[in-house]
Structure formats: C-alpha cells, structure tokens
Amino acid sequence: xxxxxxxxxxxxxxxxxxxxxxxxxxxxxxxxxGVGGALFAGIALGHFGVAIDPTMLAFxxxxxxxxxVYTVGVSAGPSFFESFRRDGIVMNGLAAAVVVLGTxxxxxxxxxxxxxxxxxxxxLAGATTNTPSLAAGQxxxxxxxGADAAAVPxxxxxxxxxxxxxxxxxxMLAIRALFRLNTKAEAKDFEASQGGPVCAIETVNIEIRNPxxxxxxxxDLDELKAMGVVLSRVLHDGSxxxxxxxxxxxEGDVVLAVGPHKKLDQLRRLLGPTAKVDLxxxxxxxxxxxxxxxxxxxxxxKTLGELDLRASHEVVVSxxxxxxxxxxxxxxxxxxxxxxxxxxxxxERLAEVARLxxxxxxxxxxxxxxxxxxxxxxxxxxxxVPLAVPGLPAPVKLGLAGGPLIAAILLSRxxxxxxxxWFMPPAANHVIKDxxxxxxxxxxxxxxxxxxxxxxVGGPGLVWMGWGAVITLAPxxxxxxxxxxxxxxxxxxxxxxxxxxxTDPPALAFAQGLSSSPATVLGYSSVYPLVxxxxxxxxxxxxxxxxx
Length: 548
Hints:
- The protein has 548 residues and is of the alpha+beta class.
- 58% of the residues lie in helices and 11% in strands.
- It folds into two domains: 2-189 and 368-546; 201-363, Alpha-Beta Plaits, CATH 3.30.70.
- A hairpin with a 2-residue loop joins strand 10 and strand 11 (325-327).
- Helix 3 crosses helix 21, helix 4 (88-113) packs antiparallel against helix 5 (117-127) and helix 19 (491-501) packs parallel to helix 21.
- The two termini are 36 Å apart.
C-alpha cells in the first residue's frame, strides 16, 4: 500500500514515531531501546507494505537528521574544547582509539569477509549505535552513485543495533570481572584523587592569624592572586563589607572565601584557621547577596576582568554557575548567555549590576529562532564543501550529518555575534533533538522494512549480526583493558569513556547504575563531542577508500 499526499505521509510518520517511542520505553533486562524503537517500528510497518512517496521520505529523513545533529552540536559546543584539558587528552585519545579500531574492523570485514560496502557502513553505524554515522554513510554512497544507498545500510544497521546496545554493557561487566574490581572502592578512589567531592565549589570562613600576612594589603599577596579563590566579604571591627584590593588584613579579621576544596586548604595555610563565625548567616544592611542571570548581549564574551565589577560597582562575583557546573569566577572567565552569577554587595550596587548583566530569567525560556535557522543554513553550506584529504581518491564532504554538527559546535562555542545568541534552552534542545532523530529513524525503518525479514532469515542477516558483534565488542575490550592495565584509569571513568565512545545514553545510564559517582558522567561528557565528529567522518573515509 503506497500512501500519497502530505496528510497521509504525516499520518504514517507520526504513527511510526509514536509506536516506536512506546516500544522504546519497554525494558528488557533493564535496558531500553529508547528513541531507537522508532527504527524497529518503521521496519515492522515497512515489512507489511506501509510506504510513502520516496522523495517525501528522503526529505523527512534528512530534515530529521539535520535537526538532531544541530541540537547535539549546540549542547556539546561550549564544552568541546574544554574536554581536551586536564585528563581530557588521554580520555579523548582512548575514545578515538575505539573509533579507529572499530573502523579498521569494518574495513577488514569488507575486504576479507566479502560483506558489501553498503552493508559494511550500516554495520559500522549499528554496531556503535550511532545514527549520524548511518546517515553519513548513506549520503556518501548516494554521492558515489550507489544503487542501494538507502535500504541495505539501514537493514545492516538494524541487524547490528540491538547487540550494539547490549555489547557495551557486556564489555563493562567483562572488564570489571577481568580485573576483579569493586565499584564502591573505585568511587572512593576517584573522589580521593580529586581531593574531595568532584568539581565542588565550597565556602569557608577564615580567621586572619598568620603573622606573615597581618598588616598586608590584599593586592600585595601574590600567593593569593595565583590561588584561584575568591574573597567576597570581610568582617573587620565587628562590621562586614565587600572585600577590596586595598583592604589591610588585621589580626582577628574574618574573610569569606569561595573556591575548590584543595585551594581553600592552601588559603587556610596562608591566612589562618577556619573561623567560628559564619559571615553569610550574620545579618547586615551593608552587604547582601543576589543571584542574577546573564542575558544582556552587551556583556557577552567579556571577561570578568574587563567588567571589573569590584572597582566599578563595589561588588564581588563569588560564584558562577554555567549549565549546572559551578565555576570559580576568575578574571579571565568570559561570560556566556545563561550564566548564573552570585553577586555580593550593597543593595543599590546590586541593582546596578543586575541592569548591566540583564538578569531577565524569562529569556532563558525563550528560543531565538533566527540564530537556529542561520546556524542550520551555515551547516548545510559547510557540509557541501569538498575537503581534500591526502591519500583519498576524492574529496570528503561533511554532508548533512557533519556540516550542521560542526557549525553548531563552533557557533555555540562562539556564544553570540552581535545581537544573535546561539543559546537554546535545554528543554527546547531536548525536544527538537528527539523529534529529529525519531523522524530520521522512522524514515530509515520504513525504507528498510520491505526486505528486512528476508535479509535476516534468508539472506546474510545472521552473518552481518555476527560481524556487528565483533565490531562492537573488540574495540571496547581492547581499549578498556589498556586503560586499566597500562594507564591505571579508574573503572568508573572507563565506563563513562566506553559509553561516550559509542555515544550511547543507555550505556551511560547503566554505568550510572553501577555507582552514584560523577566519574561516569565526566568520562562520557569529556569524549562525546570529539567522538560524534569522528563517527560522522569515519564512514565517509571508509566509503571513499573501498569504493570500486
């Protein structure tokens, strides 16, 4: 049955997506398919002859893909480059190794096991549960003139996908059993290695008792400048005031300091012991605290040092919350849309600062649509640019899977351009992302469904499934074992790394169920942006190398 017309096509797509999402909520051994259920719903309906106009189906598939990868880039962009700092280089190197090993195995399957190139690209995407990789493979096949660029990769993807989800869980459990690891002990070790609760910004009241600093001005304490803490207020002669650089420390003064656990320990050694009074609980008309959100385009991209709110408004920014992560507000930190500032000072001064930074919380619930459409348009253009790669017979194009992703990462990292702000409320981002991927998978499933059962039962489907399992498991086990045995990484960090290397949220949820430690989330988020880019580029390189 071929359903024609826009209304009928929308009915089929909406019904397929709804059925798939309901299917995705069902748990099997504690694991859910999630939005991947839309693929299998599409396959089921396609098997029973449900179809829509091919041109319309192709448009919906590509449009859903663009929405998905663009929103992924928007959410990943602000942390993409920071992910290479600290331990990020090692973590990203290991995650890249998972991608490279899986890609090499896929090439070997094609060259030595006789699996066709379209099926190989589908297996590579399904075994790693990465939908943008499937889209990139399909697109490069269409550009190369492949006749089965849509159906065969989709079928291979669907065959390999279920074990792709389960395989990563098995890899985590295998590594734990191999090295006889205890998750509770690993969580304690991780916390100890971070010097206390991870990424926690603490507050402490310190009494001035060190004779070496008594009588010194704060601006003259070089150790304090390099410490990375903020002094927000001081108690002197029974009254509080906002800390100034020219304040002279007197014996018995109490300062309120904000910073990471380790840094505050250093500060105590410099100034004195923890005080018995809490300046925050002391009521005073001179000093108050207010939280305000950055929404004014005029201050976006400026550093706190450039604004110098202490000198210009006699207030102190004691904390900065960005996307749920608390940061120490040092002078080189650049403001981004949606940053939540904790500001200490007099009430009149705080009102001035609120007007300066915007402080319009309603703006956080508003999506600026002009930047969204401009970003997508730029991504489409970027994806159409041929990129010459040494050693490849033809230029590589990022396509609709890679162009919008890279554009979104760069634009969200930029933050703003004049009045245009590349910020999307998390709720809106999540809705558009799931909407896009559900449309894409429903379209892929409908296209692949008419011959899926025949391929699985009477064709090479079972062989594909076996090779998909190899592509899933082998890289995870090798990299996981190397990370533990050679590099000595924490097991929970390894679990987050493995989940991120497969861009697999169900695997992250499983890892989080092993322990409440933040190590898994940190490992996942540190490698996810780079891996997503590599997963999009890898099938294009494979196709160009193996074509013909």
